[in-house]
Amino acid sequence: MTSTASTPTAPDRNLALELVRVTEAAAIAGARWVGAGDKNRADGAAVDAMRTFMDTVRMNGTVVIGEGEKDEAPMLFNGESVGDGTGPDVDVAVDPIDGTRLTALGYNNALAVFAVAEKGSMYDPSAVFYMEKMVVGPEAADYVDLRLPVAQNITLVAKALNKPVSQVTVCVLERPRHEPLVQEIRDAGARVKFIMDGDVAGAIAAARGAGVDMLLGTGGTPEGIIAACAVKATGGMLQGRLAPIDDAERQKAIDAGHDLDRVLTTSDLVTTDNCYFAATGITDGDLLKGVRFQQDRLITESIVMRAQSGTVRIVEAEHRVEKWDRWLSE
Description:
metal-binding; Fructose-1,6-bisphosphatase; eight-stranded mixed β-sheet; FBPase_class-2/SBPase; alpha+beta; single chain
């Protein structure tokens, strides 16, 4: 597929800051519920704000990674048309809150995320909801392979970064299924940094070397596709392998033509370089600061990434509180 900024149907560089406005809105709406113990209300508020602001973006988008194909998801469901309809034809992947439990409990690393790519370029996992993943930064991107033993990949990362294995830090979702993986990492001599939820943030941190050197483990396939848009901009590598949770899901994947032994690369998950990723912090984390409430204003911190140019921008913004009454009031 060829991608040029002059092609009318392809997203152009002017789209980047429009996407940040969308994630800022979702983050502000979700931040109202930080620590309130109700992840559903937090998610609902973020979805409402994201959908409202998304309709102002100059694009003709179709949600391919959304809130799910289920009746109780009234907005941002897979297949929904978004944008103002006047711009380029694009695939859209959203997660109004990556880390709803983190938001509800007031823990770190909750983000509002939004990715856009040329239409037809995002991978269709055929409802296989989990994927084995590995993410590294650009220095190690050409050396690691998900099919290698964990200890060997860690050694390769250490060599690429010119540091001892004992200083390699691996980000892992804290789940019972990862206990054997954690033991392998520790047996190799590396460090483990656990995250409770939100492996999009973990993937980007690994790709950028922001406190961790690699991410390993099984997490959501939709999150992997969203993260791939960001990883492309860093020059890092995301490798994944579909991980069906039961025989029925496995058979569905086989019937859809998936090779379950295949290692998918960043470019398999998003086939174009003309893609964008935006995220705004909801709670503080390694990647971004969360929404800060002050007397008359809100302060947000966002990241926006464009793969085609390899540009990564950090955007801090101030917002007047009274302009956000719809999403900050009960």
